[in-house]
Input
Amino acid sequence: MSSISIIDEQKLANLLLDPKLGELEDLLSEFNVFTILDIVEFEIRHSTFLAWLLDPKENHGLRDYFLRQFLKRIYNNAHYSIDERLSIVDLDIISLDNVKVTKEWRVAGNRQRMDIVLEISNVLINEINMTLFVVIENKIKSKQGKSQLEEYYELIQQYAKSLTMQPDEFIIIPIYLTASGEEPKHEKWISHDYEKIADQIGSVIKYKESSLSDDVQLFIKHYHNTLRRYVVGKGDVERMVRIIYEKHREAIEIINEYKPDIRSFIKEFLSELISNSPLKFTDEPRKAHIRFTTKDIAEKMKSIQKGHTVNDKLVFFEFWNVQGKLRLNLLLGPSHDDVVRNKLYEHLMESKYLKRPSKQISPSYATFRIKNTSVYQFLKYEDAKITLDDPMKKNMEERFDIFMTKILPEFEKELLSWSG
Output
C-alpha cells in the first residue's frame, strides 16, 4: 500500500493551517433547523415553507407583503406570459384578503396533485370581479413530466368551470419553480427559480425585520441560509469553498483519495487479493482504478515493440470502480510503435475472451470488456454504504477466483502465442 510523500504532507499541512479553513468550519457548525432535520432536498418541505410565506393569514406577521411582492416579481420577470387583462398596477392595488392556499392541491376523483395552488377571490380588475389561480409546480431535484404542465393547466381550467366561472371571470398564473432554472415545456407556464426566491426572502429580512418576531425572524433566516448554501449555492459557504479549493486543490484531491469510504475499502480488498497472487501492479492502486498484469504478459509487451522506447504496460487489466459499479476490463495502452499496436489491437479483436470495443481505436486507450459477464460485472453496490460487508467480500473472492483459474490462464496463453 502507498504512503503519503513528504511533499503531499506539506500540502496537507498548508491546508490545515489556512485560516480560511477555520472560518469555513465555523460557518458549517452554525445551528440550522433545516439541515438538522435533513429536509434540504425534499420538495414538499420547500413547498410547505413557501406556502406558509405566501399565505397572508399565517402567523409570520408579514400579512400579504410576501405574496404581493411575489406576484409583482413574477409579472416583472415574465409579464409577456401573463394574461393581458392583468397589469402590475393591478397587482399593487388589488385586495388580497380572500386568499386560500392549498398544498398538494387536487380535484376530487383525480389523482394528480399540484404542489401549491392559491385561489385569490373577489379581485376587482377592470371593474370585473375575478378569481386568480396561482399555481406553483415546485422542482428541487426532479424534472417535469412530458405532459405534466399541460395537464395541470387544463385541470385548473376544468376546476374553474366546475365553479360555474366564465372564461372572463378567472385568470390562471401558472409558475414553474425550479432550483436549476429549467424552462417549462408548456408555453403558458412562467419560469421562476430559487435564486429569485432567495433574493425575495433576503429583502424580507432586510426591510421587514422589525415587524417580525424573534422566532419568525430566526426561522426565515435559517431557510434563507439553507437556500443560499444548498439549493442555489451562492452563499458564504460556496465562496469560501471556492477560495480554499483553488488554493489547495492538490491537498483536497489527496484527502479525497485517502478518505475512508466504500470505494477505498474495495480498493484495499482487491489490492490484497492481487498482492497475494502471481499478478503485478502496473500503477499505484487508486479508488477509481486498479491496474495489473502478469509478469509474462509484461515481458511479452516489451519484446514485441521496436525502438528505444517500449511500454511494458501496453496490455493490462483494470478494475474500474465508479458510481456503484466495479468492472473488470482489459486495456490496450499507448505506444510509440503504432504498427505493432495496431496489429495487437486486431489480434485482441479476435480474442474469444474479450468483447469488441464499441469505439474505434484511439491513440490513448482502447477498452475491451471481459466476455464472462460474472467477471466483467464484478460488483454492484450502493455508494452510500460505508463498509465492505462479508457477502460483498465473498462475492469478489469468488469472481476473482473464476478470473484467475478459468479466464486469465487461457487468455495469457492466447496472447503469448501471438507472433505479431
Notes: Residues 329 and 369 are 5 Å apart (CA to CA).
